Amino acid sequence: MKTYTANLEEQRRKKWHIVDADGQILGRLATRIATILRGKHSPMYSPHLDLGDHVVVINAEKVKLTGRKLDQKTYWRHSGYPGGLKITPIRRVLGAHPDRVITHAVKGMLPKNNLGRKMMKKLRVYAGPNHEHVAQKPEPLKL
Fold first, then answer.
1. Contact criterion met (CB below 8 Å) for 21 and 60
2. What does pTM read for this prediction?
3. Residue 67 vs residues 23, 64, 72, 91, 102: alpha-carbon distances, Å
4. How far, in Å, CA of 124 to CA of 25, rounded?
5. Residue range 15-65+96-129, CATH number
6. Taking burial as the number of CB atoms within 10 A of a residue's CB, which of 28, 69, 71, 125 is the most buried?
7. Among 22, 26, 24, which Cα is nearest to 91's?
8. By C-alpha distance, which of 68, 109, 107 is closest to 90?
């Protein structure tokens, strides 16, 4: 058996998908989106190539969290200086920037290298039902 490698034409052929996050559970939604961004849904998947499709997520403000995550889950960042830890609860992030919650969840499921950063550029998240990618004719993705 020879190892299959996608040619340039197959690497350029990318579809657009639209996902409605209304009522979806955050983690399950993020895993499905990460799978499509990586290209694992395709029979020509190669882990060292970017063969994934573009994903547009709408209604990010209506995503659901299970259990007590709204009260317990926090995001943190550190400035590098003593006492520089900033902790933000997910409830506040969902209220102010709901698109960042989905982006952060998907980013954690992609490779942490140049290829993963390239895959993240194919993700577009919008808080409401309107998006600006109508010209690409995204196909609705059933989750």
1. yes
2. 0.91
3. 15, 10, 9, 13, 17
4. 18
5. 3.90.1180.10
6. 125
7. 26
8. 68
